[in-house]
Amino acid sequence: AQSVTQLGSHVSVSEGALVLLRCNYSSSVPPYLFWYVQYPNQGLQLLLKYTTGATLVKGINGFEAEFKKSETSFHLTKPSAHMSDAAEYFCAVSYGGATNKLIFGTGTLLAVQP
Amino acid sequence: DTAVSQTPKYLVTQMGNDKSIKCEQNLGHDTMYWYKQDSKKFLKIMFSYNNKELIINETVPNRFSPKSPDKAHLNLHINSLELGDSAVYFCASSQVAGRDEQFFGPGTRLTVL
């Protein structure tokens, strides 16, 4: 079955430090890849997505992610963390087509220490 | 203008009751979804409609019945509520099913007592 693995349910970084949130998918067919952020008591907001083309994708709020087919990974990074980045981050995949759904990872809670 | 709106935001009810959650999107999208987020924050799709037609129906109890009166609305009706139904329910929409970004509503926190 297709699945998404997010390594590390909790990640803590210092303000100004590099943020690295890991995401791996299990599929021989490259999927469409997404990172969403969820702030407390809010819905999900798209950070960035990869469909085709350039494998390094830039998103909002200074985040970027790189699709590595050989590693079946789509890790999310940000060079310098801000306090406002503290939130839950979800990696998700879909395989296209009308009946294909968004499959979410279990989420990573990012804490940013002052 | 809110892109995807849900009502109510909070819903507290007793076991055995029937309740509905409404969702509306003003983005002109063709596809709408319902997701359930449990207490561990895990998100799972429940249903998807494309142009008022059901296209995804995960293994959800029959007590849950989605209804799409038009492509801008997707409501969720739940019969005979159980304790395990307590969760946050999110509505979402997208232009093209599967490939495009999904826009999420603010969620409805359902608490069954």
Give an account of the 3D structure:
The complex is a heterodimer of chains A (114) and B (113). Chain A has 114 residues and is an all-beta fold. Helix content of chain A is 0%, strand content 51%. Chain B is built from no helices and 11 strands. In chain B, the strands form 2 sheets. In chain B, strands 2, 4, 5, 6, 9, 10 and 11 form a 7-stranded mixed β-sheet that branches. Chain B has a 4-stranded antiparallel β-sheet with strand order 1-3-8-7, with no helix packed on it. Chain B starts with a strand and ends with a strand. Classes of the chains: A mainly beta (114), B mainly beta (113). At the A-B interface, β5, β6 and β10 of A face β5 and β10 of B.
Indicate the multimeric state: heterodimer
Beta-strand portion of chain A reads: over 45%
**Principal-axis shape of chain A:** globular
The overall average pLDDT of chain A, rounded, is 92
Number of helices of chain B: 0
How would you classify the helix and strand content of chain A by structural class?
A: mainly beta
What is the rounded distance between the termini of chain B?
34 Å
Described by strand count, sense and barrel closure, the largest sheet of chain B is: 7 strands, mixed
> How far apart lie the N and C ends of chain A?
41 Å
